[in-house]
Design a protein that fits this description.
Keywords: Coiled coil. The chain has four helices and no strands. It is mainly α. The chain has two domains: 47 residues; 53 residues, no CATH class. Helix 3 packs antiparallel against helix 4. The termini are far apart.
Length: 105
Amino acid sequence: MTHPARARKKHFAKRIQQELAQKNLQKLKQLEKRISECQKEIEEMLQPPQNSEEAKRQPPIEIRLHGLTASENIRLNAILNPDCPQTIRSLSVVGEKKHEGRRLG
């Protein structure tokens, strides 16, 4: 192979290598952008609700601990969900049951 042919071959290989590097750089930038978008979405999901209306739409936290009685579990859930109407009703039912038990005894 003559010297000019070898130079053309090297130039062609270098140009292909540069094109591939440019394509890979573009793909990398797209991936970085997508990762950044995903991180923002995750951070938004982890943020507590900003207004009370949004907080009310959140499902209540329901926990049942086996070492506690039913009324203690209701109280625990009321502490965890202070604005939930269900827990307020549940607490009033527990209070009524306690008063009924005292009247019977």
